[in-house]
TrEMBL record, chains A, B:
Entry annotated with the keyword Cell inner membrane: no
UniProt-recorded name of the protein: Pyridoxamine 5'-phosphate oxidase family protein
Origin organism lineage: Bacteria, Bacillati, Actinomycetota, Actinomycetes, Kitasatosporales
Record's keyword terms, sorted: Oxidoreductase
Pfam families hit by this protein: Pyridox_ox_2 (PF12900)
One MF term in the entry's GO annotations: oxidoreductase activity
Entry's EC annotation: 1.-.-.-
Length: 225, 225
């Protein structure tokens, strides 16, 4: 699939060896996470809000609600749109070194710079809504009532092209100084994972409705505990 | 402990019933997470980077490295500092409704608006480094080699006062429309948790060094799986 072209702002000033522009890696990180942190500028100051997202090809759909600030600030095409930075971070481990200085975490992150525009076409909005639902719970959009026209109108979705994108990855154990290797402190990695617990039915759910298979089979990057 | 005063930008335009300014709630969210998303403005565009942080009283320390962009942009007092937004998000569950439209997630998030300045005082830097290490692994700073002067000089820490702060929380089951309650779709919540796996010793660790107690006892918000 190749790589994303680099730009001045996708080349880090530090830890360049951890940066990657590989499309397959970027897609895998974006597909494993489902909460992004959406950054934009309001009255000259930065704002960072968590929200749900989904990737479809080289587009990122970000969920919002009509009336929310980033949505009101991002017009639909041909509006110039809203400059955004979307960041997704997956934590894989805590890295304990002999020295306090070399403590770190293992992680995979993706940073997307771009312009967000509102999705207004009803068909594109439906595609985005299905993608958002299926991204969090694969298979779910086919097992829920689709949005009606009123709900579609009340849903706001931003789209950002994946063009200026970078990933950053740290893996492996601690990088202690040679002089510290003889110290008596334990050193290594504590793995971190996100897991799903047993599904809890809604209080008003008909007891005859069983938990669907797509909730009992482990999916993308998570493990039943 | 009371509440943080509200400002125009800490009052959400949507879902106001989910917003809170309670200091105890804000502190509990900040203390349970350890990765924040730091937003700042560079050349007029937003940048959002993941990094480690720790709370000490009403101060937030954010880890950086000398030479990184936000660090170079934030001077030490009396420099006016760098306008930042720091957001911490904890995901608690996936909310499955009968309708695609009412799908959601349960979460707790904190958004901090403020000004970041570099910590230059060596004693304050040591306090910050210890807090950062102990925040990720409680008890660890006392069981590792403290930073020496060279390492302290190579470490950059930003400090942000907790003054303009809000939390947002969603809990509970799906909020389906009454007309959808009879549909045959399963509805409810899938709990999401972050768990720690078994500690993996570094390849070069002396086999006689046992895993410390503070890694085997469950701590703050995480559960051994």
């Amino acid at each position: 699939m190749g790589t994303y072209p680099t730009t001045d702002r996708t080349i880090p000033t530090r830890s360049r060896e951890r940066a990657s522009y590989d499309r397959a890696l970027v897609h895998s990180v974006l597909d494993e996470g489902y909460v992004c942190h959406l950054g934009f500028v309001r009255d000259g100051a930065p704002v960072v809000l968590p929200t749900l997202y989904a990737r479809v090809g080289e587009r990122l759909y970000v969920h919002g609600s009509t009336g929310s600030r980033p949505l009101r600030m991002a017009g639909a095409a041909p509006d110039p749109g809203l400059a955004v930075c979307v960041t997704v971070t997956l934590v894989d481990g805590l890295v304990l070194a002999r020295s306090a200085f070399h403590h770190s975490i293992n992680y995979r992150s993706v940073v997307v710079h771009g312009t967000a525009r509102q999705v207004t076409d009803p068909a594109a909005k439906r595609e985005a809504l299905d993608a958002l639902v299926d991204h969090v719970v694969p298979g779910r959009s086919a097992d829920s009532r689709p949005a009606n026209d009123r709900e579609l109108a009340a849903t706001a979705v931003l789209v950002i092209d994946l063009a200026e994108v970078s990933a950053k990855v740290r893996t492996g154990g601690p990088n202690d100084d040679d002089a510290d290797l003889g110290l008596g402190h334990w050193a290594g990695v504590v793995p971190v994972r996100t897991v799903h617990g047993a599904p809890q039915p809604a209080a008003d759910l008909d007891g005859a409705i069983a938990v669907p298979d797509y909730l009992t089979a482990p999916a993308g990057g998570t493990t039943a505990c």
